[in-house]
Amino acid sequence: MKKTTILLLTILLISCNNHERNCKDFRTGKFEFVQDINGKKNTSTFIRTEKLQIETYNGKTDTASVRWINDCEFILQKLHPKNMKEEKAISMKILFTEKNSYTFEYSFVGSNKKSRGVVTKLD
């Protein structure tokens, strides 16, 4: 019984580990996102203001509007979509932050399929 109580208390303490969420620190600035696609690292850099996000990926620049839902969630909508897939808005949610980076979850609005990534703030 004593071992069970200790085990339950340990699990409870571990599960209460709160991640920091200073989302306001990441609303605007210059950022970098690195992702692995088919074993190759792809880097995207972007500048985000309160209302716009200008992203450069593989030498191509694209602009999206930014609509903040709350301090940690926003919607991206491409301003000049080139196809039907690009017309879909993307829901972004900052899960937790560190000194100069944040982990986020994203999906197309209305989709249950979510992916995660880490963004680093450059300035």
Protein architecture, described:
By secondary structure, this protein is mainly beta. The chain has one domain: Lipocalin (Beta Barrel). It has helices spanning 2-15, 84-87, and strands at 29-37, 40-48, 52-57, 60-70, 73-78, 90-97, 101-108, 115-121. The protein has an eight-stranded antiparallel barrel. A hairpin with a 3-residue loop joins strand 6 and strand 7. The longest helix has 14 residues, at 2-15. The mean pLDDT is 87.
Q: Work out the helicity level.
A: 10-25%
Q: How many beta-strand runs?
A: 8
CATH class: Mainly Beta
Strand order of the largest sheet: 1-2-3-4-5-6-7-8
| Biggest beta sheet summary | 8 strands, antiparallel, barrel
Proportion of beta-strand residues: over 45%
What is the CATH topology assignment?
Lipocalin
The CATH architecture category equals Beta Barrel
SS class: mainly beta
Helical element count?
A: 2
**What is the H/E order?**
HEEEEEHEEE
Q: If you average the pLDDT, what whole number results?
A: 87
Instruction: Please state the oligomeric state of the protein chains shown.
Output: single chain
Question: What's the quick description here?
Answer:
By secondary structure, this protein is mainly beta.
